[in-house]
Amino acid sequence: MREQIPNIITTARILAVAPLCWLLWHEAWGPALAILVVAALSDGLDGFLARYFGWRSRLGALLDPLADKLFIVSITLVFGLRGHLPGWLVWMILLRDVIILAGALAYWRLHRTLEMQPLFISKVNTALQLLLLAITLVHVAFHPLPPLTMTGLYWLVGITTLLSGTTYVLLWSLRAIRSTRDH
Question: How many separate domains does the chain show?
Fold first, then answer.
């Protein structure tokens, strides 16, 4: 049962997405920030438990990135619809994830195997996207930041989103070509 603790924590993080988005939409900034902080801490905790105690599972390997993506996409959509993030960046983040998901499904359908391994640039991109969302919350709710700071962060996230998405497309295309050629 202890081995399932990281999965339970990750599932709780997934279940927190809807209330968080509702709070953000209704500008209940304090409770939204509290959920965001708890979610971020729980993400670190479940990863630590899985690595330190060896409580890894196939389910956890699927749930953890799903929870991250669900958080990022949902909050990005809310902030985008409320006008707190530029539309081009919202579309870029969403399109990258749709392309990666479609590519992964296509690869799995062709080869009946799929082992996702996050790339370093993807980890950097995820961290920057989460930082952007947290800073955006602080910016709109508590303390407006200089426009140059926000614009710089938008561009940094945009560049890493583009690099990450392009790298995934290239790598998985090469894998698919190689795998097809080998069969």
Answer: 1
Gap between the Cα atoms of 3 and 131, Å rounded: 30
Task: Tell me the per-residue pLDDT of 103-120, one tens digit each, with 9 for 90 and over.
Answer: 878 777 877 776 767 789
Q: Are 109 and 174 in contact (CB under 8 A)?
A: no
Q: Which residue segment(s) compose the domain that 150 sits in?
A: 2-182
pLDDT tens sequence across 136-176: 999 999 999 999 999 999 999 999 999 999 998 898 888 77
In CATH, what number is assigned to the domain containing residue 177? 1.20.120.1760
- pTM of the complete model: 0.89
Which residue matches tokens 């995934």?
168
Closest to 78 (Cα-Cα) out of 152, 27, 139, 151: 27
- Token pair recorded at residue 29: 């900034």
Average pLDDT over residues 86-103: 93
